[in-house]
Amino acid sequence: MSDNLRELYQQIILDHNRSPRNFGKLEAANRHAQGSNPLCGDMLAVHLRVDDDRIAEIRFEGSGCAISQASASLMTSAVKGKTTAEANALFRAFQAMVTSRPSTPIDRDTLGKLAALGGVRQFPARVKCANLSWHTLHAALESQEGKKITTEREQE
Amino acid sequence: MVGVHGLSTAPRAGFDVERVRMDFPILEQVHEGRRLVYVDNAATSQKPHAVIDAVTRYYENENANIHRGVYRLSAQATLAYEHVRAAVQQFLGATDPHEIVFLRGTTEAVNLVAQSFVRPRVGRGDDVLISHMEHHSNIVPWQLVAEQTGATLRVIPITDAGELDMDAFRSLMTHRTKFVSVVHISNSLGTINPIEDIVALAHERGVPVMLDGAQAAPHMPVDVTAIGCDFYAISGHKMFGPTGIGALYGRANHLADMPPYHGGGEMIRTVSFAKTTYAPAPAKFEAGTPNIAGTVGLGAAVEYLKGLDWAAIRQHEDDLRDYATRSLLKVPGLRIIGTAPHKAAVVSFVMEGVHAHDVGTILDEREVAIRSGHHCTQPVMDRLGVPATARASFALYNTRDDVDRLVEAIREVREVFGT
User: Fold this and answer.
1) Rounded-to-integer distance, Cα A98 and Cα A120, Å
2) Residue A33 carries which DSSP code?
3) Known catalytic residue: B229?
4) Which of A115, B43, B180, B262 can bridge B287 by disulfide, Cβ–Cβ 3.0-4.6 Å?
């Protein structure tokens, strides 16, 4: 196996793909957003319970490749219990990581387990897979209720 | 001849795959020590020297606009362009070069027929019939017509194996049916549809039929006169020609009845602010300066295909399909999607516990190029209950060694995922 592949499909990614955390519906949710990657058919829904500006509960549903599933699972684990500002800061740090050059050092202190997704930098076609859940979370936090998030630009 | 893995390759009369491979420069590519295995031919095909050289030669020596200049170069370019029309006419078995319209590809051909032939002829209470296995390019143009006219788009169902349900087709054909448009060979499943039966059934009721031939033209001889269809569309880039050029065959009487689709230069007889009269078909549908270099390249592709032994190619591709099917089925947890008995060399598959995109990425690291996703046929994926498939689609230059490399890489997918 190549180093790039080993980096992309780390054990933690495979594990979160096989047993996604926080998967399913959330009856008590008060924020929702749906994301899709129309070019590959990945679908994702993120449900949040935000109390006093803090993410009390978060769950996701959907189907997709190992990268998008693992990213969604890791994202929900990372932002649970965080304030919306903290979650948005993580969103920005994650964006900065996946869109950086492969040689750029990763801010592991800020990103923690999310750093495992840094392997997508070697695979430009897969960056979208890692990003989908975060964009969907971002939309849910911005309370863009009913707005459909897509990795592609769409006609208004 | 002995293959790399000691598998003997049966000698094929009139067809030597190693010689054919030498015609395609991209196949010599080696990346990080691995020879390129290109098995995404249903998406686009590679180009032989003959096509690349023809386009280069055109730009280096022959470039001029057509149908207007009085000078030598323009006259020659016009001759070359119209010569390709005649070559495509012969390639498709049409009787008159004026029945061939040059367009950007199959997508534009479907849109032209939808807007210019079908739209003026249908309204509320009328049906347009397509099938469940269509490419999005043979779905969306009809949805647009349905929205514009109030006509209803009806869909011929497919079986679990990925074949058209012909009994359902018969019952969907009613007095309301005004047009039928179906794919000749499915890009995502490989199913070869019984187009002669479809045309016969539709024509019994006087209903015109369009066939999307994008996947057929590079793999088998097409004879529109024998098929009897009303329209047949092809894309240059799927048949070893350039991108951005394709052709529509349309029966002369239909083309004559159709209003222009785009307005502009080239497609007119006279223009005044009071009244413009149009040129006859096919010029009527070729507004603006066309893709002349692409057309020249398409001509070279047709010429290249004419020089090959089609029966031998068919045999070669059938062998690749069967060998790939057998080899892939030995991989535990792998399931083939699309198992019609009458099938082209397209093998779509899913792997238990692994998404098609992850398969695609891992295969790419092994320099094996396949397509993963819904292949612009989302309704097929929904119908067969899979979110996406990985698809290997073969062409005349592929070998059993390519299949071995594919299967070897797939074994690595299982290794990575520990399935």
Assistant:
1) 7
2) E
3) no
4) B262
If asked whether residues B313 and B299 sit together in one domain, one would say no
Residues B277 and B330 in one domain: no
Catalytic residue among B189, B239, B376, B407: B376
Taking contacts as CB-CB distances below 8 angstroms, the residues of chain A near B419 are none
Interval B391-400: pLDDT, tens: 999 999 999 9
**Cβ–Cβ below 8 Å for A14 and B417:** yes
Would you say residue A155 has pLDDT above 60?
no
Q: Give the structural domain span for B413.
A: 17-35+309-417
Per the prediction, chain B carries an average pLDDT of: 94
Judged by CB atoms closer than 8 Å, whether chains meet at B361 and A64 is answered as no
Q: Which of B306, B338, B373 is the last residue of a domain?
A: B306
Which of A123, A83, A103 is closest to A2 using CA atoms?
A: A123
- B351 neighbourhood in chain A, CB within 8 Å: none
Q: What is the average pLDDT across A101-124? A: 94
Give me the interface pTM, i.e. the ipTM: 0.88
Q: How far apart are CA B203 and CA B165, in angstroms?
A: 18
Domains parsed from chain A with CATH numbers: 3-149 (3.90.1010.10)
- Picking from A5, A41, A69, the nearest residue to B362 by CB comes out as A5
Name which of A14, A41, A67 is nearest B373 (Cβ-Cβ): A41
CB contact under 8 A, A67 and B358: yes
Decide if B219 contacts B191 (C-beta within 8 A): no
The answer to whether the bond into B341 is cis (omega within 30° of 0) is: no
**How many domains does chain B fold into?**
2
Kindly write down the DSSP assignment for every residue of B174-189, as one continuous string.
Answer: -TTEEEEEEESB-TTT
Q: In which band, very low, low, confident or very high, does the pLDDT at B3 lie, cut at 50, 70 and 90?
A: very low
